[in-house]
Fold each of these.
Amino acid sequence: MISVGARASTTGTRREKRAPKRIEVRFRTIVSPHQLNSRWGRRIYWTVLIAVVTGSTLVFVFPLYWMITGAMKTGEEIAQMPPTLFPAHPTFDAFIEAWDLFDIGVLLKNTAFYALGAWLFSMAVDVAAAYALSKLRPMFGNVVLGAMLATLMIPPMVVIIPLYVTIVDLHLLNNAWGLWFPAAANGFNIFLLKRFFDSIPRELVEAAQIDGAGPLRVLWSVILPISRPILGVVSIFTIVTAFKDFLLPLLVMTDSENMTVSVGLSQTAGAVSQNQIMGGLVISSIPMIIVFFIFQRHIMAGLTAGSIKG
Amino acid sequence: MRVLRRNLTAYGFLCAALACFAVFAWYPMIREFALSFQKTTLVNPPTWVGLDNFLTVVQNPAFGKAWLNTVEFTALALLCGYAVPFVMALVLNELRHARAYLRFVVYLPVMLPPIVAVLLFRWFFDPGPGLFNQLLGFFHLPALAWLDSSSTALISLVIVATWMNMGSATLIYLAALQNIPPELYEAAELDGAGIFKRIRHVTIPQTRLILLLMLMLQVVATMQVFIEPYMLTGGGPEDATMTVAFQMYQFAFTLQDYGAGGALGMMLMIVLLVFAAFQLRLTREDKA
């Protein structure tokens, strides 16, 4: 492939003064390296690249810029027409006001508590279940697995009313367990974990058993250390899902001192000014943006882990 | 004896998960069925009322409108949320620069809590100082009423939904595209296939399974759309954004009629299951 590309650049009708920089091709896609490095190919490539980069930035980043600068504008400036691209007198007043009006400290504390609890509880429950189904292989194990995976076919919205009625019947309203129990009943986590555990060779488990390790010891000292990648993926998804969840917390956490960030913002947003809303939105986005910066690779790996190899 | 012990330990490890699933996943499915034939008040024990709930649902004036809107919303969301990410992934896969940046940027809205995207766009849709009308004015185009007009409200919701969800679909397609063996493109090129023919005869057949799977997931996801009508329009104006999922919420949690909500939920579930079965058959034929 390299030789083809090299020939392409020398057979150009007119050599440019400065040899154009070759577009490096490490993997073959629809457009061939030969086409890509032809004179027109290069021009089109750079045009498309610039268009896509500016377009994506405008579509996906500019709204966030508008949100942040909106929060730094005063009440009059944010309602001004036409709007200003930069805040004339940037202030952080709206952030401070939003913090008090929405009571974001309490909301964030609640959300973190629910998310961490959901993570710890569902990891303990789902890892144990996946381990039992994968390595201990009980009778009717496949039936149990099938019934767990079948819940993935039922869209969560459809069963939200009976789930709510069940939670009310069990007196779990305004109780963190009302969010943690449903979070642990997650067929997708069990599917991902079990598939990873299945790939761990039997010999490893048997060697540990010969050394006298019981099932719990095998799980703790053999399976879990090997499974760190998948545990990372499942952990992050559980936490992110718990943080983003809206409808169930809206129904279960009804007292204002128990609300999550999303629910709290939705309930108070009608009563405060636009720049204060933006301040609240910025503050409540920060935790997820930080998580994304730190765990970007895990998140992107996890996104494709479940879907591609199906 | 050893078999019994192995089974006992195994179910010991399983029991917590079994309990969670039984109470919070399997039982609600059965309860949904019962709920739709009962009058439930949460105070008094439920009583059986036959098909009354279904009658309440069907006789609601917005019933037909809600289904029509849901289908329209799904179709629009597919157009934007299904085709756009695929094209985006095709282009991203061709680019040799800024790949990490583009992937990061596309996925950024997915990380935000949905309420952030929804409240942010509520401001953009504001007919006065909102960003969208100001942009239209900048290009000397007529202003739109966005959420306040029954003709543009639904498409406005689709715009929000697409913005905040398309990142994950794009990255899933991108991963599928990277799994296509390069030899196929080389062979197609030797046979004289141009770029569009290569897309049609190599890329799409090679990603067909994932395309079908995503179609199902996308339809199921958009059929359940809730937070957008809940926060942005409340189903209005003139029921223009009343979706089935939102009507279900209204029955159960605004009117406290859990039976009617359950009945509507049953209908939605049947529609989605029929769709899923149909889809599964398509996929299976594909494998054979």
Amino acid sequence: MQVGLTHYLFLSGILFAMGLYGVITRRNAILVLMGIELILNAANINFIAFSRYGGMQIDGQMIAVFVMILAAAEVAIALAIVLNIYKQFRTVNVDEINKLKE
Amino acid sequence: MLDQILQSLKYFQTETVLVVSFCVIVLADLIFRKKSNVTSYLALISLVVATYYLGLQGSDGIKSIFFNMFAVDPFSLFFKAIIITASFFVLLFSLNSKELVSKTRGVGEYNALVIALTLGMVLMTGATNLLMMYLALELSSLTSYILAGYTKDAEDSSEASLKYIIYGALSSGIMLYGISILYGLTGSVDIYGIHQALMFQHLNTAALVVAGIFIVVGFGYKISAVPFHFWTPDVYEGSPITITALLSVASKAAGFAMLIRFTKVTFINPAIGNLDPGMWDIFKGIDWRFILAILSVLSMTIGNLVALSQKNLKRLLAYSSIAHAGYMLMGLVVLSNEGIAAVMIYFIVYLFMNLGAFYVVMLIADRIGSENIDDYRGMGFRSPLLGVAMTIFLLSLTGIPPTAGFIGKLYLFSSLISAKIFWLAIVGALNSVVSLYYYVRVLRNMFLRDPQANAQSLQISFIEVFILILLVLPTILLGLYFTPIVEFAQASVTMFGIQ
């Protein structure tokens, strides 16, 4: 069997769905962030697969590099915020962090 | 290649100033750690210098720089001016904010981050490439996540930044996935290239619709339109008030600038007349104009109705800002030059009235330590100046003549009527009436109820009165003499690549 564009698109679609599912169902802030990482990587697979099989230029692979850097920056900030949350609330459960919204 | 980069830098001076001053402020913070005001003044000066170069840009005409990554045109110039002015005012507010002094360990990083946030938003206004748009959006989002939690020893501020980053990262992730599909379909991330592909190729409609909806999620989050608004009330309530003010004005302006450019360049068939609904037809499968109209109606209605029952003034203003996003989306539904100009006029007005309202909230919160509407009882007698200023800002937010807010709404509604979208104009007008109720509730507390027995009058320093007057005067004067801003906005509709 030849691995082609469709296979990659399926993979990225599944990854995206898993990421979204994780964000919606997980209560632990760290796991929610992991779901978001999955979504970003799903987009990355799309970019690279289109760039490789779509007969397009190197644009897609370049974008993927940018996105990886951005994802790292985002996760660094997110973890700092979660750490601060843990210091304040002694929990990282997003349902229990609900002081606002009275 | 190097040649073009050097050429492009000539038209990139405002942004360069911001980049350099960000580095300078970080260094200055290390050197003058004890005297934290140094960084505040540096940040203010850098914004003045940036404004100077922005003024020079007026004569640059219309250009595309950095290999079609970024457009220099009157449209981006206009929104850059709005964003830099808003940041300037917010830095002025921050100078005397007791919240920032008492609850943080120095404001050096705060000032550096505000400059970085300004840079991100300025880049959003000119981006003409989906990658550039995404990067600019993330630059402004990442800095605002940190700034929302800047008073990190306060529980509500930490909670605000957590909620903000979860919603923000999810929305921009979904948007990126949409961009990747659009890239696969059209083979381009340049919005002009995408436009060409949409015009002349037969693309898979279902995939196109999915990509379009995913991208709208990212934009909707940035301008806090319903149903992507869930972060707004919590973040606005929990963040430091200065940051709330900046997010509500500048961040929204940047989001709208990017959304307008994306919609206008990508989806619109320039050959079909300005007011004809047929111009939307190149993006097949869904009636995009109707979707934007629905977003607008939802934002207005839900924002206004939920605001009715709010007890915290910051939260009330958060819902009111959602409603205002709905009003401004009405102009986007029209999308003719008249509609875009109406959105731009509204932004000039919104800049002064909304910043002013948040400034009054900040001044009062610094003195009585509360943002509760019940604690505003008799505030009009405890501090007549603040009371009168707040009255002007809130009446302007409602859109009552002779304030500037009326002019903003007038142009929005008249653009809808000349495009013959009457039902939306009626919904908008009804919503303005609903909004009157909750704005006036604040005013009633301030003027018609007696202060608590032991309440004292509030002292306001000279510089604070001065800043307040800087905001009150435009709010009144632009309601009486509005020709200059209308002409400025109408002259600034021109975008790169569109006649």
Amino acid sequence: MTDVTAPGLAGAATRPRGRASSLTRTRVRSAWAFIAPALVVLVLVAGWPLARTIWFSFTDADLNNLSDYTFIGFENYLANYDGEWLGLLTDPDWWRSVWNTLWFTLVSVSIETVLGIVVALILNAHFPGRGIMRAVILIPWAIPTVVSAKMWNWMLHDQFGVINDMLLRLGIIAAPITWTANPDTALWTVVMVDVWKTTPFMALLILAALQMLPQDIYEAAKVDGVHPMRVFFRVTLPLIKPALLVAVIFRALDALRVFDLIYVLTANSKDTMSMSVFARQQLVEFQEVGLGSAASTLIFLIIALLVAATLVAGRVRLGEETR
Amino acid sequence: MAEVALRNIQKSFGGAKVIHGVDLEIRDGEFVVFVGPSGCGKSTLLRLIAGLEDITEGDLFIDGERVNDWAPAKRRIAMVFQSYALYPHMSVYDNMAFGLELAKASRSEIDARVREAARLLQIDDLLDRKPRQLSGGQRQRVAIGRAIVRDPKVFLFDEPLSNLDAALRVQTRIEIAKLHADTRATMIYVTHDQVEAMTLADRIVVLNKGRIEQVGTPLELYHRPANLFVAGFIGSPQMNFVPVEAVSAGSDHIEVRLPGGQTLPVPVHPEGTRTGEALTLGIRPDHLQVREDGPFRGRIELVEQLGENHLLYVAADGLRLTARETGDSRHRAGDVVSLAATGESCHLFRGSGEALPLTVPRGDRTTPPQSRTA
């Protein structure tokens, strides 16, 4: 997999300079010309803010006066005052938010993947009203997160919420549950709302992959009498795996940066605080630009590491498959 | 090994009826080819036998058992698809073994069967490859191998050679014929290619618009087409059709008037043909010859030299006639020639398209008598 050389640009670029023909050099030049605008935009909108954030994380900047700050090195991350370790890396609230985010990501993306596959398989079957169903299922995804989070907040309200009311009437619970405030239920509630909202996205990506699959192999399996479950695990799943992996990475990236859903549902509760909510609290509420930037920098590093690990793991597995 | 019987098989998709009551008996070990133009229902008929489509009406028997409501797997059939339908992510070996793993076969037995089939098809050195690493011909062999390892009662082929190039098609065709000779399994084969039908079939079933036009051995269909459709479909280049008029009818022949005015006696049973009735005269290109006194006089539009023979396309009396003669042609486009045919080589069709029975037997006198009946 790794030694496959792409034709054109990649091959030409790795060739020793002296031997490149003039046609190749022209091609490489025009390739750079086409890429340049995108690179400039990326540097301006992503590179500059990122660099500034990383810089601020080494200062004691304050939101009240951003021009007046001093360089303090790694003290926002880790510092030793009179034998006592301080800084972000010793802050239990920060580690709590990291743990919350990872747990949220793992649980919600897992559930969304499984449900997404189920929904996609259903939508892929031929039944009347399939077109309408496909549109209907998109509604949760189409609603802005703040709106749907607010809506769920109201439905989950401990006194006036429709969910507590229904569960009470059905006799499933004896007393109203404070879904978003109770430490035992808060993070699960966040996961539930996220699953409700994002499963359609997963389902649509997987459905697109399912519709690319050749139909004849399913007829062949039918003639050969292979059990449908076996066909799913041995044929369908391996064939949609590349698309599934892309969908999971997309969703995991979103989940690791989760902010709006948690902020609207549970505000600054420590039980559900994600890394992004933590960083916002430091930056805006406590006006600690230095500490907030340090948190943001760590978020960036954690996400970058996780994505790199996922990509490497995914490529290794894909490589085995193509051998 | 099994016989297959179709009794009044009908199939509708929604309101559209595509198979209108097909009756057919396929004998044990027979190679039957369904042939017809696209949309004639031949593939649908095969899929009905496979169980990939539900039969709307009628009964399907395999080995004497009514299998209408049986799942495809239970019918003990194997199907080879036009697109090969190989699992793209599995090796050749797994492609062949996948369908077996469930069929109560032990691992060593599966292994033995896969290797045996691979050896038979000469793909034993490809077992570890993925389908995309194979050529079209190799993929088709894997698809056939997957059918063989199942040891089915009936092999079904759905246009298996259409995606291959011409040379490979001939080669694979010969291999399929050999496979049938070796296994003596019942085979049903769908194609739109009449050469495949003629060369492979014990019996050909000509289908048109969801109905059987004629069932018979290849030579029966060639020499005694039951109607205009079969006459036009079997044989290449196509049979020439000439509108004629019955002048007189004897007990064993009809005298017809050709468009040029001459008359020609054709040895067929008149079966109540009236004088003056409009008929269609059918002449195969091989039976039209250039003759000084021929009744069809016209200008050659095109000459096709094929080496062992040549084709003359002649516009005569408002007709387009095709003649085939052996060797090289001395004629050129633009030459005026006369074409002639003997009445003994011609066919006559009534207005309904139905052929009048020949009084003189043709060509197929060597065909074994039991396969004459449809």
Amino acid sequence: MKRRFPLMLVFILGILGIMPYFVPHGGYQNFDNALRNDFIRILSAFAIILGLVSLMRVHHDKIRRKRENWQYSYVLIIGFVVSGVIGLLGGIKGEMFLPTNVAGFHFDIQTLYLNIIVPLGSTMFALLAFFMASASYRAFRARSVESSLLLSAAFVIMIGVLPLADRISTHLPSFAQWIMDIPNVAAKRGITFGIALGGIATSLKIILGIERSWLGGKE
Amino acid sequence: MTFVILSGIFALAPPTGVHAFDTPNDGGGAITIEWQISADDETIEGYEIYRSEDGKEFEPVGFVGRGRTQYEDDTDDTKEYVYKVAALQNSQTAHSEPTPPIRSRSQWFDMTSANLLIGVIIFCSMILYFINQAKKGKALYIRKISGLDAVDEAVGRATEMGRPILYSMGIGRVDYIATIASFNILGEIAKKTGQYETSLLVPTSDPVVYTVAREIVKEAYATIGRPDLFDSDKVYFVTDSQFAYAAAVDGVMLREKPAANFFIGYFKAESLILAETGASTGAIQIAGTDQVTQLPFFVTACDFTLIGEELYAASAYISKEPLLLGAIKGEDLGKVVIFSALVIASLIGILTRFPILKLFQ
Amino acid sequence: MKIIEKLSRLDRRIVYLVLAAAVLLPLVIPSVQKVRVMTPVAKLFKAVDATPDDRIIILDFDYDPQTLPEIEPMGIALLRHAFKRKIKVAVLSLYVQPLGLAKKALDQVTEEFNGRAESREDSIIYGRDYVFLGWQPPPIVPLLGMGISITNVYTRDYYGLRTDSLPLMLKVKNFNDVGILVSLSGSTAPLYWVSYSQTRFGVAVGAGITAVSASEFYQYYQTGQFSGLMIGMKGAAEYEELVESNLLLKDRRKASEALGSLTAAHLTMIAFIVIGNVGYFIRRRRERRQP
């Protein structure tokens, strides 16, 4: 029963999930909407509690056992508590009980977000350029015919999009454009077909209970 | 007098042939009104749609620009309506004849999706047929996927070095197909790490994904008879913020120095940030995603990459379960069908360019 | 030989340092690079340029701070184009975060034009030449609702004014009165306009996107669902080039200035790849000689 029940649930909910694509009836659509929007939101809300408990436990444990870099766990826990209190009691722009503007100094959630999360996010995004450089330097090797082709295509695109490409040859930018327009789109469409079919097959296997690795494998 | 004659000559022509019908293939609450454009369509501003419940008092319910011949009105399924359409020019309007009364209804089947349903049924039948073949014991061939052959090597190496294995599922939600495929692989990898008693770290970025991943690892250990190995602090939730998650996983890689990193699931711009940091620690890296734009990054920075559907096939490949292999065979046949359709359509497309072969047009 | 071998095994921190220098130095002394305009951008320019007098264009500002450097120059170039040609513009965002960035771009370009205007006719006036519709959640509401009535979806603009009181909006009812809608985004927002608004109401859609996400959009451009595309810094620079050469507008071209940096970064990466490969070949040859 411990295994059969989840499998049955997956089967029933899987079929119910496919039906709204074919059944436009208002009553059924409302039911589907409740299932997708309301139930998933309620589930997520409880899952967030579980997730946060797990996060706190991991860091609490790290501090208790004084594992490597345990000091940083204090940063996390203090950050969690402070932003939680400001967000829950102060509201997004400080419109609730907690005053988030002291003598012209704002510390509401919106301000914290714009001045901490946004620049940190941009910094991580900018790191990509450096990682691209080091990854291509380390790994782009003309080991075989295929990798040489790939490398040549990369050079054509990288130079083709530069203003100086025109000075090398007027055909170079057009060739770069052609690579993006034709071989790139063709390959992408091919992979998309495979992904779509694979997606259907994976869903079918799970709905029918053939794939049960997510249950820890066969009994 | 002159004015009357002029306005008689230049009277605005109303739209003609106005008819209203229940919008087909919908959940009710809509009526479609269609008409033929007014003779003065070029000069008018557009068409105003009027509605009445009693056939006497009409009120405007919508407006569309000139040249358009259709309008969909939101309705109440319990009421009957009569419609009129008027051409509008400056302050002048020209009303059409009213339509007969009409009521909107809900449909139980969307005929426009019939082709989709037939396609899905045919494709699913193919998969089921091959699964059935596999059940009967027919041996099925699956080509080598080197990324998955390396799983054993990665687990073995981690065991020898006494270092953990990192498994990241990216930033996908639980309903993304890549996340689901990643769950299947996680189950298999957890079993292997359990057999060697190697530690498995699973930082997650979605609370629901976290709860499922935790159960999978727990079940996998239970399946191999080692439920005691499960440590709830090794599978944990970090944050749902994309780059904060990337920073956290980078941190784990730099501090714990896992011997093998798996990046399997749904990834966006953080793919290279993770893979390149992992490469700098010297770990064996196996990646897999169906996000085409991230594949080049993984291919460059990882030792092995599962491309698109290889990711979906992975659990069948690792477990060598015949029923799962059957499903892959079905997928392949599906691809053959699509490929043939494309080739035939392209051929017809090319052939119609030759005047002699007008036959195909 | 030894030097090349050493160069091919540089520490990654040196790679980062060299790249940082290559990116930063050209930005210190900005100079405008001339570019050749490629078809996707030329098509977009033509589509905007062909907007008849009785129609407007809609600019959807949907980029966030992460992608601002790449996409903002596109928005600015489009605004300059429209204002110079006296094409009426409606600006909006599908999400809340880009609103501030949209306002920043609008303020910059209106100031440019009004700073050198000699008469009321020359200046760019809110409500007459452009409107800022703001944000109306969830995205599906404007995507579909604007096909029926724009003023019904956005009853009030960003500044809280009633949209049906603005002179520009009096003649604009729905997508029928829109020449083209250009969506500027670091994510997939342009695809929403195609799948919802274009499929249902036939509005022409153009897009400005980041270089890294470009391969996702090409297939829709090929099928004609996008009237034109601006891709990354180079696409923005091409549009700036068209605006300057066709409309004789001499304003600051941020994307074109950044091309120097982009060129240096690309060349540095190519150089690193070449060095890495030369080192690899030397090693391989030696290993073959001494098995």
